[in-house]
Records
---
Amino acid sequence: MSSLSLAVRDSSTMLRRNLLHARRYPSLTLNLLLTPVMLLLLFVYVFGDTMSAGIGGGAADRSAYIAYIVPGILLMTIGSTTVGTAVSVSNDMTEGIIARFRTMAIHRGSVIVGHVVGSVIQSVASVIVVGAVGVAIGFRSTDATVLEWCAAFGLLVLFATALTWIAVGMGLVSPNAEAASNNALPLILLPLLSSAFVPLDAMPGWFRPVAEYQPFTPAIETLRGLLLGTGIGHHGWLALAWCLGLAVLGHRWCRARFDAEPK
């Protein structure tokens, strides 16, 4: 077999391994999935009227706020899910299984590729679940065309891939699962400091740069524009640049860290 065929075969095996782990031990994924769901329900049913009145500057309209908040929650779901990836990678690195894999005739990068692809699949599945909750409470995307739906799905997959590579790197450098969870905490906090819940114009001047110059805000604004048929502006290019930049950076980081381990 060629080296490419071996890499694909071994990566597929590692992917099945990670998906089996996720199926047998779903508690971590479910716990991380509850965070965006609870935030969605909290902001819609507790703060929805007040937030929509403040944003719109007029009468309260909870349905308008649902349409505004769901795209941000979907991307927050990806950030939450990838925290589990960091913990899973850290467990592999500290429990000795990687040392066992190094003695076997398998492609060296297949372990990391299996984690990345498995995490992206879990992230997309989590987004579908949270999206279904959003639809159940009133979210509608009637203005989006088929092409915009495909672009939105592509953005979600690309964003999940970029964050997953970063999360895998965090798992590789963490001495234990608790440290990996703490290191990956910004992936949950950054969406809270973005335009997910309120527009940039409604933020204080000193805080707005924090929300504007980070990866989640352009991705949220792009997804919001695709799903709601509103303008995207420069956010589309910024989101693409952030996704590609984080993916390349994360890949290089993971490769350097994994190759630095004792052979």
Note: The longest helix spans residues 62-94.
---
Amino acid sequence: MKLNIALLAGDGIGPEVINEAVKVSDAIAKKFGHEITWKPALTGAAAIDAVGEPYPDATHEVCKNADAVLFGAIGHPKYDNDPSAPVRPEQGLLKMRKALGLFANVRPTFTFPSLLDKSPLKRERIEGTDLVFLRELTGGIYFGEKGRKDNGDTAYDNCVYTRAEVQRLAKKGFELAMTRSKKLCCVDKANVLETSRLWRETVQAMEKDYPEVEVSYEFVDAVAMRLVQWPNSYDVLITENLFGDILTDEASVISGSMGLMPSASMGAEVSLFEPIHGSYPQATGLNIANPMATILSAAMMFESFGLTEEGKAIRDAVNKALEAGVVTEDLANGGKAYGTKEVGDWLAANV
């Protein structure tokens, strides 16, 4: 298969972890007889510094003409520490999601047998956890009207959803549940929010189309509590943008490190694959960042093309590395810590 992949390294440790994902992906392509053409493009603070905007038109052209996008991370302290900055790296991420129609963020959360005791949660609570969040990505409060009034003393952010936006995300959730254990949880705050009531009634109306799926409805605060008490009671969860942003970060610590969790943002034409961690600017250039989440995101990318053996080969190599202790300092736990490049080299040699 010939693959044309847009490569958006971004900021901070983004370029470092992307380099290792490319290294492993190229090893997979060589092993299975594929051809990958990588097309780098600017985004985030790097793009602001270069051309004055975080998601330039040239980058969008590269992305929309690609078969998929492999993305690193964005963010820089000079923008984080300046709330009045007129242009911010995160604006580029929101613009990219909207422009590419990336409406469904898929975030799996699973445990690694060799790391069960490194999670902040007790082994007996997390063992066997294998759940997937589908977060709506292009609607809700992040994209609603926002502003200030009363001379800046009052601020507002409007949360707006349409039935069609809920339906297309829920459809993905039902379809995914059918391939797993046929359990779906709709996460909302329907006792308070009108948008949540729209979510709940829309999903309820869709139940008849998927009679084999067992659907539950839970308030977001209850889910936040149960995620750290009984995470393995969940399978597929669907929710809106803000709730999903918070809950998926909470779920990410179950595995023991955010540096292990991949994600995908699915669109109608092109999909984007990225680690869930941020740009971690303090580690930039130190060769200490964990590249495994980005490499596992590349595994999800291969699987999106139907290349399941390729994805499995990457996952198997990551599991072997974890068992062998070939890990960066975030997972070394006092033992030997390998560098970002060394972990990538080991994985590329062992796919």
Note: The longest helix spans residues 14-32.
